[in-house]
Design goal:
The protein is mainly α. Among the domains are: 192-357, no CATH class; 359-459, no CATH class; 473-535, no CATH class. The protein contains 21 helices and no strands.
Length: 555
């Protein structure tokens, strides 16, 4: 009795396979079929062997790579701290000279061990480049009697070292070396501190980041560069508090605002000019969001704390820039996310300009009319995201207006008119937006249905409220005939019902008797007219009875 398959060992299975192969070979020889040479089946390693190999590989990884990294970092930090000691009893150039000698030795060992200890060789190179920067920095810092007292010479030397280190990073194609030496470049900008030096260095580093990103497709480096650029600029505008200075905002020249926008344009280039085979994936979208949010957040904060500047003018300029970028993304690649992000930031900047330019509550009306611009551009972008976001902002603006305006005036009618116009634009271009439902259009119409009666209630004299609502209902009915839209007929009916309730609840008890009589007469006449119109319409749409039915009815 043969063994069950579950009880067969690996060796038994291989033995059966070899016997089967031998039989097939004899059959091929009998049929004179050319035999193909095949290697003997390799022995499958057992599970304990695989586990042992994995453990050994992990042990080698820890011992060879991790310990090497930690050891080089420890040595580099120890030597860097050694170089920062004052050494007042020694000539001021000796610590730096000692550092340069060490760097030369490290570079020699890195080259000598390039073949035999490849991992250690690479880590030594990185540590040597780092020490080269600190040895150069030691020439003018960490001592009361520096070897170089001219700040311009020291900054020039530091920039040369950073440029050399980045060139080595470029040749080695190492993202870690590149990121670390870019960080040293940003540190150099803060060390300089002078306005045009800081702005020029940050601009150059931004261009470098974009160059490396496009060359090697390092999206993580781009994210790092975006954060470091805007963070360094922020620290500089705060008077370099980490360098022992008093925290202070608003003292930077106005020109730095333009450079914040310039950084934004530069980093946007990484997404605009990326290779065509790179889709708008998550890393690209993330870097787009970081660029827009960090750029405008720093810009907005800087304008708030600045003194003697035209906030509306600067924010209009920022709005124009972000909207242009959104248009470029849409024209170039029909980008969904980048177009949305830059457009929303552009509209936000325009809103900030409006709030800064007009007094409260007037700016609420301008913000309301801005909604028309947003809806119109969203139709062109085919962006449902912008449509939904704009409606939410529209509601927030209206609620804020009601909460802060005190007395609601006639300008509140603008909110209802804007809702009607927005709904009309969405209906006009619904095919372009590819809207499968009319949810947003109905939301705008519902807003108009509520906002316009409320605005008229607060705008006209109390004894004319019911009349103004009837006029509004008549407008809806005329619009329904002109546009052939049943939605406006329902709005006319609902507004009329609201008028009836108002007349019987409010006008009956509060207004003057003469006004009360006029209100009832007008409302009654309008209701009878509407009833006659619908009766006529039912007669036209109902099927006509035939002759036999007419005769039977007569009998």
């Amino acid at each position: 009795m043969g063994e069950s398959p579950e009880n067969l060992s690996n060796e038994q299975i291989l033995q059966h396979l070899r016997e089967l192969e031998s039989r097939i070979a004899r059959i091929e020889a009998h049929l004179e079929i050319p035999q193909s040479t095949s290697e003997e089946l390799p022995e499958s390693p057992s599970a304990p062997t695989i586990a042992a190999e994995d453990d050994e590989e992990l042990e080698l990884q820890v011992g060879q790579n991790w310990f090497a990294k930690a050891g080089i970092v420890g040595l580099a930090l120890g030597i860097a701290f050694l170089l920062t000691l004052p050494y007042d009893s020694l000539p001021s150039y000796l610590p730096s000279l000692f550092g340069f000698v060490l760097v030369g030795g490290i570079f020699f060992l890195s080259r000598y061990w390039k073949e035999s200890f490849e991992q250690i060789s690479r880590y030594l190179l990185g540590g040597g480049l780092l020490l080269l920067y600190f040895a150069t920095l030691r020439l003018s810092h960490f001592t009361s009697a520096p070897a170089i007292t001219n700040p311009g010479i020291e900054l020039a030397l530091l920039l040369v070292v950073v440029a050399y280190n980045l060139s080595v990073s470029f040749r080695r194609k190492s993202i870690y070396l590149t990121a670390s030496h870019l960080a040293l470049g940003y540190l150099t900008a803060l060390i300089g501190g002078q306005t045009f030096f800081v702005l020029a260095v940050l601009t150059a580093l931004s261009v470098t980041v974009v160059f490396f990103t496009l060359k090697f497709r390092w999206n993580s480096l781009l994210a790092t560069g975006i954060i470091l650029t805007f963070m360094t600029h922020f620290l500089w505008t705060a008077n370099n508090p980490f360098f022992g200075n008093t925290l202070q905002f608003g003292a930077s020249p106005q020109i730095h605002l333009a450079f914040i926008l310039l950084y934004t344009v530069i980093f946007t280039g990484a997404a605009l000019f990326r290779s065509r085979d790179i889709p708008e994936n998550f890393p690209v979208i993330l870097n787009t969001v970081l660029t827009a949010l960090f750029g405008y957040s720093l810009f907005g904060l800087s304008t708030l704390v600045a003194q003697g500047i035209s906030i509306p003018a600067w924010h209009v300029a920022a709005s124009a820039l972000f909207l242009v970028l959104s248009i470029v993304f849409w024209i170039r690649e029909h980008s969904v996310y980048a177009t949305f992000v830059y457009a929303i930031i552009g509209y936000t900047a325009l809103s900030a300009a409006i709030v800064a330019q007009f007094p409260q509550p007037d700016f609420f009306v301008w913000l309301c009319w801005q909604s028309i611009i947003v809806v119109s551009t969203a139709v062109w972008y085919r962006s449902r995201f912008i449509i939904v976001a704009n409606f939410v902002i529209y509601l927030i603006v209206f609620i804020a207006y009601l909460s802060t305006a005190g007395a609601v005036g006639s300008v509140s009618v603008s909110f209802g008119i804007v809702a009607l116009l927005s709904a009309r634009i969405l209906n006009w271009q619904r095919d372009r937006l590819e809207l499968r439902t009319e949810l947003m259009r109905n939301a705008y119409l519902a807003s108009a249905l509520l906002f316009l009666p409320y605005a008229l209630y607060n705008s006209v004299a109390p004894h004319f409220v019911s009349v103004s609502w009837l006029i509004l209902a008549a407008f809806y009915y005329v619009a329904s005939r002109a546009l052939r839209s049943r939605k406006y007929r329902w709005m006319a009916l609902l507004t009329t019902l609201l008028t009836i309730l108002y007349v019987f609840i409010v006008d009956l008890t509060t207004v003057d008797s003469v006004v009360r009589i006029v209100s009832f007469l007008v409302v009654g006449s309008v209701l009878l007219t509407i009833s006659m119109i619908y009766s006529r319409k039912r007669q036209k749409t109902s099927p006509k009875p035939n002759a036999d039915e007419s005769t039977q009815r007569t009998i």
